[in-house]
Amino acid sequence: MEKFTVDGVVIKTSVTGEADRIVWVLTRDRGVIRAFAKGARGTKNRLHGGTSLFCYCDFTFSEKNNVYNINEALVKEVFFDLRKSMEILTLSQYFCEVIMKCVPDKCDEEIYLRLLLNSFHFLAKGNRNPLLVKSVFELRLSCIAGYMPSLIACDNCSEYETDIMYFNCADGRLFCKNCGRGMAVPEVGVAVISAMRHICFSDFSKIFSFELQENSLKTLNRLTESYLKASLGQDFSLLRYFDGIKD
Ligand SMILES: [Zn+2]
Question: What is the C-alpha to C-alpha distance for residues 27 and 9, in angstroms, rounded to an integer?
Fold first, then answer.
């Protein structure tokens, strides 16, 4: 039996047995681990708090024949404020669902955990527009997962920037005003293109640091969402629910 300790966030839970939980933890350097938490549904059980959805803990796991159990869960951050509204809660659950779909097995890259923790942090604190957090999460995650859009210049003539550009969500190609005219792809203002370049190319510590006017932010959201869905070849039912409740 192997025993190890690693930090991670609970991204999904389900119930089993009389009082047990199955939890899926996005860990720092072992991908997503599915593990049993014995007795964790009992409110007085020592694993109860730490194995709840969105909890960030130092987890001690034991593993035998690819079956994992959680022995300890030392809470580092509860992210209670992710439950403060249906909008924030739904968005947080959507982030978790996307992570479940795109983190490779036994992935040792900590960038997935850092992106999720940062996104949770800004959603919980409420100091960024939730749509901005959503777009940063979607687009930077696409890049991390190997789907970096080609935003450096027009795909056809290499023009860096025109006041209107065209972005093809299906394949991540960008076109200038002249080359893109008449194409059946969305027309995008330069502010949105700048924001997309910022999310893809800037240092990780700065990706949430930009501002956009509301209309541009809505456009950015449509693009990053479509692009992520096209890249992963997945739809997410929570998005339709989110569209129905967001302000
Ligand atoms: Zn061009």
Answer: 7
